[in-house]
Please model this.
Amino acid sequence: MSSLTHPVTTGTRGRGGPSSPRPRRLGRTIGRSAPLIPSMVLVAVFLLGPVISSFYGSFTDMSLTGSAAAGAKFVGFDNYVQLFQNPDFLQSVWLTVLFLVGSAIIGQNVLGMGLAMLMRHGHAVVRAVVGTLVVTAWILPEIVAAFAAYAFFHDKGTLNELLALVGIHGPNWLYALPMIAVILANVWRGTAFSMLVYSAALTDVPDDVTESAEIDGAGGVKRLIYITLPMIRRSISTNLMLTTLQTLSVFTLIYVMTAGGPGTKSSTLPILAYQEAFKFSQLGLGTAIATILLVIGAIFSIVYIRALKPEVD
Model:
């Protein structure tokens, strides 16, 4: 008789009865997530809230002046249509991509990797001097770094004074080559972060692996391409994502150095968003540009996150 009732009891537990492990797992999950609730609330209030507000504002005619300042009206996709018909906006998209690729994806990452390898294999004095100079640029307040870069690239600034010592008359960098000036300034400003990330990643590369490759006849370039870079692939993807998002939001550096000029030759999307929202009082257009900038950042993030996924054999 007992042997017949035993399966019935087991089946009741399997359907989620009081003794089922499913409620216990759910309770443990809730208990472990409870400490995260305050941080999740803060993220929702201070990050998700402004994003939703900005997204909605991009579909309205919000303005700082006029009747729209008192009560904005829903205008649908009019702001986005107006933007994509504006050649200044399309130019800003191109300049933003150029600034991003030149200063973050190529500049900071390549130079950061080179400095990290120098810090790993260079002389102690060289490591101390280079590390101090590079990190100093990173820890400076952004406004201070922006004015320092402005003084360096100015027509009568430090760079042209140094070129004059060797008989070269430099151009007015901020007027003739504004994007090159801001790209180099942002590389100088942000390379320290990449250097520190890659320095930490290189310490995880086993010495015996590189030594074995060296014994097998692999030169320095081959060891870098076939051993070092694949082993720190996840650090590279993480650093690319962080530097990309940081560079997309750069405003102060460009605004202090060129204010988007001359004309619109260095007007990236953050600069254009500021001008539309606060210079021309078109908050709807400004928030539409900010939304597009957010979408661009999300696209790059998705690409990098997919690169971070572990390889499946």
Remarks:
- The radius of gyration is 27 Å.
- The chain has two domains: 2-42, 80-308.
